[in-house]
Structure to design on (422 residues):
């Protein structure tokens, strides 16, 4: 498939974040073929998109999600993490079925695509169903197989092997698999050691929750004499690629370790605020050049997966909390929410608008009252844009949504099914 986008403004995000006005962009198969000031006559396209009053930018990457959890939206609201998990979420999750996981995932994916997310890093039970939903939706996804308990059992291993066989590196690498030990307080040390060896054998990423609450930090210090970050470091986890969700309670040594070992921090500001977990030291991580990305967490602790809103909150809280308006600038947050996601997927040519790069793109409709006047496009996108401004979403060169209409999922049927099970 060849797509021509004409007369559009673009934001390049990788090195310096900058805007270019009124260009032609050609997409061929899964990649950006050209970006040009003029139309290239010999590009024979199948499909044309008019870019007048629109902005093309790299798609958003949501680095920490639990797709099926839209089914649990608003369960246990107004409680702290441990109360929420142990008294509301874990008991309800025991009742979930494969069907719930598939339909809940699809519902979350609709919300994600509608707000411009082109790639996600997930972890949950029923990973096979989650992977199927991600596959069906057309999004780019790394699917985490949930691991909790004392021992690495044969049934855990065979679930991982099945999901790996069915979904790792599927559809031109669009779907991949990661191992997701839940957290240091729900997995024994032996289990974590075995999982690490298994991840090495399969050559996959690790995705886990680290240092989310003060309780977790204190538990780690009391039981093991080290912080959660140092605990994972000493186990050898950071010799692999680890996506560490939350990273709220870090000491200076933790920040140094994370920067040096290139741990990928998934900043989840809304979930951290809703569960009153705290505010992650993102300015300090950025100062040390650690890799920071952005995530929503699951729908029950957010209560949505709107990455535009997440970016907005991330751009504001560190300024207010530290009484410093220069922290987490609009250009930094845009990079965090888009191009830094490439580190998760290990795809170098992803996360920017450049020739030869993956066509994982969103088109924003600028013809909205809150986006006029366009004095500073980057500030307008971070501080004023709404999810409903996302007009078109393209992943791997395929159009998943156009003019606000999701093409890959039958919404009427999905809402009907969701209503039946809720
Ligand atoms: C490992 S599968 C996912 C597991 O994690 C639970 N969960 C969702 N959000 C959070 C969070 O913010 N901290 C810790 N655990 C969380 C989810 O309910 C599943 O049980
Ligand atoms: Zn989580």
């Amino acid at each position: 498939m060849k797509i021509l986008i004409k007369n559009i403004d673009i934001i390049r995000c990788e090195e310096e974040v900058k805007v270019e006005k009124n260009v032609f962009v050609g997409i061929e198969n899964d990649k950006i073929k050209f970006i040009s000031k003029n139309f290239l006559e010999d590009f024979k396209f199948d499909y044309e998109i008019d870019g007048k009053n629109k902005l093309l930018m790299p798609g958003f990457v949501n680095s920490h999600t639990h797709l099926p959890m839209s089914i649990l939206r608003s369960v246990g609201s107004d409680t702290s993490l441990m109360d929420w998990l142990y008294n509301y979420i874990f008991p309800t999750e025991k009742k979930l079925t494969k069907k719930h996981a598939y339909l809940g995932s699809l519902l979350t994916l609709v919300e994600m695509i509608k707000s411009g997310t082109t790639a996600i890093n997930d972890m949950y039970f029923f990973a096979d169903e989650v992977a199927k939903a991600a596959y069906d939706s057309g999004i780019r996804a790394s699917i985490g197989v949930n691991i909790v308990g004392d021992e690495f059992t044969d049934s855990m291993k065979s679930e991982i092997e099945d999901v790996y066989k069915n979904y790792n590196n599927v559809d031109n690498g669009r779907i991949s698999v990661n191992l997701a030990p839940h957290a240091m307080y729900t997995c024994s040390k032996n289990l974590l050691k075995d999982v690490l060896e298994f991840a090495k054998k399969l050559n996959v990423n690790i995705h886990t929750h680290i240092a989310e609450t003060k309780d977790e930090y204190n538990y780690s210090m009391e039981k093991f004499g080290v912080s959660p970050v140092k605990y994972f470091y000493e186990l050898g986890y950071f010799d692999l690629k680890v996506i560490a969700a939350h990273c709220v309670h870090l000491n200076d040594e933790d920040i140094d370790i994370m920067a040096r070992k290139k741990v990928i921090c998934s900043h989840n500001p809304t979930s951290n605020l809703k569960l009153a977990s705290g505010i992650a030291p993102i300015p300090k991580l950025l100062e040390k050049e650690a890799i920071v990305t952005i995530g929503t967490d699951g729908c029950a602790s957010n209560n949505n997966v709107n990455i535009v809103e997440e970016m907005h909150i991330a751009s504001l809280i560190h300024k207010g909390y530290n009484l410093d308006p220069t922290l987490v600038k609009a250009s930094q947050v845009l990079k965090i929410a888009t191009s830094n996601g490439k580190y998760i997927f290990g795809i170098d040519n992803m996360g920017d608008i450049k020739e030869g790069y993956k066509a994982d793109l969103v088109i924003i409709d600028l013809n909205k009252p809150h986006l006029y006047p366009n004095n500073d496009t980057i500030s307008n996108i971070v501080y004023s844009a709404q999810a409903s401004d996302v007009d078109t979403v393209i992943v791997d060169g395929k159009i998943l949504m156009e003019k606000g209409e999701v093409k890959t999922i039958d919404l009427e049927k999905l809402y009907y099914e969701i209503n039946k099970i809720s």
Remarks:
- The chain has two domains: 2-59+357-406, 60-345.
